[in-house]
Amino acid sequence: MTFLPHTVPAPRRRGGRSRCLLAAVLACGVLGTPPLRAQMRPVAIQDATLLVGTGQTIEHGTVLFGDGKITAVGQDVKPSFLARKIAGQGKYVTPGLIDAGSALGLRFQSGANAATAQAADAFDRYAEDDIRAAWRDGVTAVCLPARTGSGVGGVGAVLRLLPRGDSADLVLKKEVALCAGLGLDGRPGPLARVRIAEDLRRRFQLAKEYREAWDDYADSLKEYEEKLAERAKKEAAGKEKPTTNQAAGDKKPGEQKSPEEAKGDKKDEQKDELKKPAEPAKDRNAEMLLRVLDGGLRLWVEVHDPAEIANVLDLAEQYNVALIVEGATGAHLLAARLARMQVPVVLSEPPTPLAYLAGPERYARPDDVAILQKAGVQVYFGSGRLDSPTASPQLAVRAARAVGYGLDANAALLAMTGGAARLLGVDKEIGRLESGLQADLVVWSDHPLAPNAQVERVFVGGHEVFRADGHEPEGEE
Amino acid sequence: MRSSGSIGVSPVTGSIGVPPVTGSIGVPPVRSCLSLPIMAVALSAVVLLMTASANGQADSARRVLQAAAYVDAEGQIAKGGVLVIDGEKIVQLGGDPPADLPVDAYPGAVLCPGLIDCHSALGALGGLSERQQAVQPRVNARDAFDRYARQLRLALAAGVTTFALAPDDRNLIGGQMAICQTAGPDGRPRLLTNAGPLKLSLSAQTFRPDRDPTSRSGALGLLRETLEVLGVGQSSSFAPLGDDPVAAFAAGRLTGFVTAPGGADVLACLQLAQDYGLRLVPIHTVDARRVAETVAGRVAGIVIGPFDLTTGQRAAVAAGLFARHGTPVAIAGGLPTSPPDSLRLAAAVAARAGLAPPAARRAITAVPAELLGIGDRVGELSAGHQADVVVFSGDPLDLRSRVLAVYVAGRRAYWAQAAGEQR
């Protein structure tokens, strides 16, 4: 572990110099990142066990990367003599883990009706303790749902945990899903649950009505414009020479004259009857919801109660919405339905206490992940809402525990790497050790699920951002 | 550590050579759909029973546990998991077992001492602290022990065999801890001893506006006053009954578990221990970075935790830091307000944060037993110790391992059914 330096150089006479030194120490220690350069020396991690992120394992493999991207992966990769070589005997290399449901660096939660809010905007990129804690657990990318209490909170994003100097491509995907929360304000009783579920449903209903209002408006606008054009023609014709049957010829094919229109033809002269239809008010929130209804954006619902999950599934069925469920206490009770509807589940709750609890926690059980997976539900791991600012995601510990309770070990690894990347739609960028993907990877002292496994090095975008042995991450000299 | 309060329990009598399966009275109810295999097993059991009695050599209370490996006294995983149990005790570890004993075979498994939560409220009926006075010499946690609580069964299934019921952190002297077990020779939870350590607290919860002490300095003042009154043998205003635990503590005969979250609290403990000759174990200590070196050699041990997946790194590295400086580290599970596997979870988190695996295994077995004063009885797999054994499918520290069976006082109190049917 790298700790911040405690010892500050003693003040000397030649203050200027010591101040420079102090500044340099602070710069190295506080930022914790080497100065970044445009050209990077390629790095090769050699002779390690590579857990590729697809379920495949390569023994005695080499990963070669440079300029931020992985350039070669395999057993017979020969790095150039220029490359910085890292001995990987006995070590494991994985893609950087993906925390599929995090609150890292989120300093506030959005209001209850803020569909246009962007989680990426709320991310505090200077939250270095949080980011360092994530690196220490091997996490290099997080999905940040727009956290809210109950209601629609905004659009979630996927971020890469890049060192501070390199924040230009921090946001990997700006719009993962439209995020909502159900029943997260305190402990709602059954009646409140009715209201909460109804509230979300009503939003979708209003969005539909909003679209209908605009469709109506578009129709009447068209009608209005046609009439206007017709009248203009008639007027023009009246001025030159009165003709008949002109209007019909000008009509677009497939359109029919309504009786009103026909009537209007006759008494065309009464000018003031033609009114421009009023434009409905713009509603950006409704438009975001419409994107969900049209299948362009998924709906992400954070929910911690099986009864609420059932409500959300009803809603998703009713509106034919692609859904992701996060939480999610008691999801195993709905395993068959989640599998049938192909709804992925991001498990982001801390382990449930042994004591009997009156709330929905009483439905939780430690082997829920395994039950979900065996039923055919895709499961992923998230760190959820962590109370402590320096709490770490402990994804690998979560996964190992899930394996202890019956989850398939390979599925557990996939859920943190390639699988999560696919879920979040970033699998062209991260999640696997594969040539062409981002060089976000982790060197472990042992298999990531093993008891003593420690993250030894973390690379993000090819930069070494974390080292466990106390050394400063090595730059590219 | 000396043994405190011996409770003589005679071995179970009257039961004849019980083969593994029929001996499982304590297991969860088996579903009816399994009745066929159960019948088959029962039949074979009867056959075994008959052969055993026909040989006439079956020793009623003796049996052999056979696994691939075991957790040794150093916390290492050693090869050769053969354990001979006689009654409640382990009589032989390793070597060749006597040939004619019934064998519970767990191929590939690892035998581990029963896990010990040295600071818990498991099965506590009602609160675990009084509210009117900050010094509670009369409180003994055994009175809050509810042996019928369902929690105990769940804790047992997670491998927890022994736990110390501890008064909470809200009183300066909260009372005496009671050491209980999730099962016993008769298969039921039991009180092992009510002579556990004295529980003290210097946490902020102790300071209350409506009674003394209201501040940290007030707390230490009151503590000194209490110790001085009892230390010089004057009768205290509390008029304790029997062997007063506070007097025993003041005389250095009884260990005190002191909640000391911060570095300054730990230093206060050290000062008190030095001034009055006390035996103190700081508990719930998070602030390791500053005091890890200072406490080395000056306390019997230190209790870290409870912590879980949401714990900050500062707490997680504490265990490793203390251990590196040579202080025995125990990890508290904090049951039941933590998950059933909280001891292993905390040990695994601590191991990833730098606690060496053998020390991490000892932190939830041997070290808490020693600190509780029952180290000669539980916490270790060795001849003469009580046969509290958890059979894991692998390394107990590896969260991928499952609990296959739990023995308490020589009796199999739990075993896992086929995977996915653990409840």
Outline the secondary-structure elements.
The complex is a heterodimer of chains A (477) and B (423).
Chain A: H1 15-31, E1 43-51, E2 57-66, E3 69-74, E4 84-87, E5 92-95, E6 97-99, H2 119-122, H3 128-136, E7 139-144, E8 151-155, E9 157-160, E10 171-173, E11 177-182, H4 190-240, H5 246-250, H6 259-266, H7 284-293, E12 298-303, H8 306-319, E13 323-327, H9 335-340, E14 345-347, H10 368-374, E15 379-381, H11 395-404, H12 409-416, H13 418-424, E16 441-444, E17 455-460, E18 463-467
Parallel strand pairs in A: 1-4, 1-5, 6-7, 11-12, 12-13, 13-14, 14-15
Antiparallel strand pairs in A: 1-2, 2-3, 5-16, 7-9, 8-11, 9-10, 16-17, 17-18
Helix pairs in contact in A: 4-7, 4-8, 11-12, 12-13
Chain B: H1 35-55, E1 62-71, E2 77-86, E3 89-93, E4 103-105, E5 110-113, E6 115-120, H2 150-157, E7 160-165, E8 173-176, E9 178-181, E10 190-193, E11 198-201, H3 216-231, H4 245-250, E12 255-259, H5 263-276, E13 279-283, H6 288-295, E14 302-304, H7 313-324, E15 329-331, H8 342-352, H9 357-362, H10 366-371, E16 389-392, E17 403-408, E18 411-415
Parallel strand pairs in B: 1-4, 1-5, 6-7, 11-12, 12-13, 14-15
Antiparallel strand pairs in B: 1-2, 2-3, 5-16, 7-9, 8-11, 9-10, 16-17, 17-18
Task: Find the CATH superfamily of the largest domain in chain A.
Answer: Metal-dependent hydrolases
List the helices and strands of chain B in order: HEEEEEEHEEEEEHHEHEHEHEHHHEEE
CATH class of the largest domain in chain B: Alpha Beta
The end-to-end span of chain A amounts to 23 Å
* Main sheet overview of chain A: 8 strands, mixed
> Under the CATH scheme, which architecture of the largest domain in chain B would be assigned?
Alpha-Beta Barrel
Distance from N terminus to C terminus of chain B (CA atoms, Å) equals: 38 Å
Q: How many distinct beta strands of chain A?
A: 18
Mean pLDDT of chain B: 82
CATH topology of the largest domain in chain B: the name is TIM Barrel
Average predicted confidence as pLDDT of chain A: 83
The appropriate CATH architecture of the largest domain in chain A is Alpha-Beta Barrel
